[in-house]
């Protein structure tokens, strides 16, 4: 298995921008896409990957923008941006979300099943915020809970080399969720949690909650070293963070299951189990290293 993992390892995913991805859309027109390597010009960037989310995204955006606008009114010095990374095939998305402080990007690399992770990467690499929040388009986590993950980040001070991560967590809801699940899905869930703990990440109980807040430097160091493009993407992110000794907080957040999930329980978790094993073996055998890349 070690030999297979080593021989089949891809050193780094190939990332490139299509010509139309070098600009983002706002109410004023098109502007060049910024880079995470530039100095921060916003306090917060919210990255929302969106693929076939036209039914769920509007509710999430209404809640997020409503909260952020109220916060800015209370504190005019607070600056933010919301980055929706979309497949660019729906004009409706452009009409709704291309506003002066919230902008739309497109990603055309949909031939790989890891589109969600590619969208997340593109959004993070183009962020202007001092802090970067990864948020799912389904709105399963209540957006005002950003204050909880911000508090988690604050409690990690002092940040070594400006790096820290605060993860939203649903672990406190596990008992209630078990009561609603079948025995088979509960068994899969416990099996996945055990593999995450045994192979990769020992200190975080819920690695998969799509509500993570990173400092700009932590996002640059971890996202530019990622290899996984599928569901185990979050696990590798935290595995890299632990290898780099980046402090990580886990904070309980409100969470509601939203219909329309693209996760197929058995096959997706089987794939994640394989990816977890390969993450450990490929780093252990030196097929993957903690190396960063430039994303232009």
Automatic annotation (TrEMBL):
GO terms for biological process: protein N-linked glycosylation. SUPFAM superfamilies: Nucleotide-diphospho-sugar transferases. The keyword Repeat does not apply. It comes from the Eukaryota. Residues 45-222 form the Glycosyltransferase 2-like domain. It is an enzyme of class 2 (transferase). One of its GO terms (cellular component) is endoplasmic reticulum membrane. It is a single-pass membrane protein. Pathway: Protein modification; protein glycosylation. Pfam families: Glycos_transf_2. Its EC number is 2.4.1.117. GO terms for molecular function: dolichyl-phosphate beta-glucosyltransferase activity. Keywords: Endoplasmic reticulum, Glycosyltransferase, Membrane, Signal-anchor, Transferase, Transmembrane, Transmembrane helix. It is found in: Endoplasmic reticulum membrane. Belongs to the glycosyltransferase 2 family. This is Dolichyl-phosphate beta-glucosyltransferase. It comes from Nothocercus julius. The gene is Alg5.
């Amino acid at each position: 298995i070690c030999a297979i993992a080593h021989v089949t390892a891809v050193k780094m995913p190939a990332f490139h921008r299509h010509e139309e991805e070098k600009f983002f859309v706002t109410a004023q027109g098109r502007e060049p896409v910024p880079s995470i390597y530039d100095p921060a010009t916003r306090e917060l960037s919210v990255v929302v990957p969106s693929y076939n989310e036209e039914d769920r995204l509007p509710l999430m955006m209404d809640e997020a923008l409503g909260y952020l606008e109220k916060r800015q009114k209370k504190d005019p010095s607070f600056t933010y941006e919301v980055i929706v990374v979309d497949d660019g095939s729906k004009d409706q998305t452009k009409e709704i979300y291309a506003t002066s402080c919230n902008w739309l990007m497109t990603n055309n690399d949909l031939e790989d099943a890891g589109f969600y992770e590619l969208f997340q990467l593109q959004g993070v690499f183009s962020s202007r915020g001092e802090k970067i929040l990864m948020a799912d388009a389904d709105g399963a986590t209540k957006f005002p809970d950003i204050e909880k993950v911000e508090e988690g980040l604050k409690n990690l001070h002092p940040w070594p080399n400006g790096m820290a991560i605060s993860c939203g967590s649903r672990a406190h809801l596990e008992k209630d969720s078990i009561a609603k699940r079948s025995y088979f899905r509960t068994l899969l869930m416990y099996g996945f949690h055990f593999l995450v703990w045994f192979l990769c990440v020992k200190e975080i109980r819920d690695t998969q909650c799509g509500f993570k807040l990173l400092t700009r430097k932590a996002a640059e160091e971890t996202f530019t070293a990622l290899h996984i493009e599928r569901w185990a993407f979050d696990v590798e992110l935290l595995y890299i963070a632990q290898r780099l000794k980046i402090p990580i907080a886990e904070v309980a957040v409100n969470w509601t299951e939203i219909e329309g999930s693209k996760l197929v329980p058995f096959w997706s978790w089987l794939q994640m189990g394989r990816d977890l094993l390969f993450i450990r073996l490929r780093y252990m055998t030196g097929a993957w290293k903690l190396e960063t890349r430039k994303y232009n």
